[in-house]
Sequence to fold (97 residues):
Amino acid sequence: MRDPELTHGHAEAIAAWAAGLRGQIPALAAALQSTLDAMRAEVGDEGFGRAAAAHPAGGALLRLAAGKLSLSHLGCAGPQDLIRLAGQLGVDTAPAP
Fold:
């Protein structure tokens, strides 16, 4: 069966959107690092764990600080995870087609 909504043009739009989202990974990694650096500057190493855990992107911040976060995918399994992380960091993403 073919889904009439998944025309060739629509499939291309989804592929372009997904590629654009993947293209934002370096900017998200930079935002995450910037957040981590600012947090450490504000609360120091002793208060970092508590402050990071309270942040919406706390899990990613803690993994980044521990050197356990892949900068190639930021621990995100798919587009929804990337969109969620972007929202937690205050970074806008293109809406899905």
About this structure: DSSP finds four helices and no strands in the chain.
